[in-house]
Every structure is written in structure tokens, then in C-alpha cells.
Amino acid sequence: MNKSSIFSIVTSIKGYEKSLNHDSFEKSKKNVNKPFQKYEFLGDRVLGLIISEYLVINYNNNSLDEISRRFIHLVNTNTLAKIFKNHDLNQILKHQLDPNSNKNSVYADALESLIGFIYSNKGLAFTKNFILRLWKSELDTLPQKDPKTFVQEYSQ
User: Which of 112, 138, 140, 146 is catalytic?
Assistant: First the structure.
């Protein structure tokens, strides 16, 4: 999915801005009036469901360890931030954070917030298609075990 089609999809959904207005953008509002965190909470769960389903269906013959490693890679902060920035979504994220700050957690949270918003407005099937297209280049990645896990397993 190219960058312009991502923009078209996101900006065609009425009210998308609510999900991309980071809490720092409206510091004066009470926390209850800031939808960013609520969409992020929902988006995290929707993303986990869709990625889990994809992995169980497509890697059914793999061990649970391999499926878990794939899952952890696909939903971690660095992967989410990479996907968010690769599609230039940071251009429509509104925030008042330090402009020199390049915190991956902010971009990851923003992508989860966007996913939560899309899910609540377009439903599961649309959101699933959107996520699988966004994650296409990452879906088949099997990361290496971290050194600590490798040593622990070897020593056992």
C-alpha cells in the first residue's frame, strides 16, 4: 500500500483528526475529553487480535515459540513507529512535543490510536484489511531470539 493511498484512506474517514491529536496538543483539556488514549487502548487490542489471528492461520505448523516471536516483533513499539513513519503519518499527527524528540513510543501510540478510531468507525473487516496491508512488509519476519533467551535455552 503506497503512502498516498494510506493518506486517502485515513483522511476519508470523517473525524480521523481525533485519533491523531496527541494529548500534548490539547494540554488544557481534562483527560476525559481526550480521545487519543481511549482509541490507543482499543487499537492495541484490535491490533493484537488481528495479528494473532493472522499468525495462527498462516503459521499453524510453526511452534508456539516462533509464533510468539513473530507476534512480539509485529506489535512492538519499534515496528509500529517504523510503519507509522514509513507511511508519513507523522505529518498529520498533531502534538506539542519537543520537535527534536524522535520518540518511537509516541508514533507507536499514534498508530494504535488510529487503528482504534478506524475500528470504531469502519468495523473489524475493514480494519483487518487496513492493518494487513500496512504490515505487509513485516508479516513474514521471524526475528532471532535475543541472546539471553538463547543462552538460557542452551544451558537447559
Answer: 112
**What pTM, to 2 d.p., does this model score?**
0.77
Nearest in space to 49 (alpha carbons), one of 123, 128, 122: 128
The Cα–Cα gap between 23 and 58 comes to 37
Question: Of the candidates 33, 34, 111, 46, which has an alpha carbon nearest to the alpha carbon of residue 78?
Answer: 111
pLDDT of residue 25: 47
Q: What pLDDT was estimated at residue 98?
A: 52
Which residue has cell 494529548?
Answer: 23
Is 23 assigned a catalytic role?
no
Is 44 a catalytic site residue?
yes
Q: What is the 3-state secondary structure (H, E, C) of the chain?
A: CCHHHHHHHHHHCCCHHHHHECHHHHCCCCHHHCHHHHHHHHHHHHHHHHHHHHHHHHCCCCCHHHHHHHHHHHHCHHHHHHHHHHCCHHHCCECCCCCCCCCHHHHHHHHHHHHHHHHHHHCHHHHHHHHHHHCCCCCCCCCCCCHHHHHHHHHC
- Which entry of 23, 40, 44, 109 is annotated as an active-site residue? 44
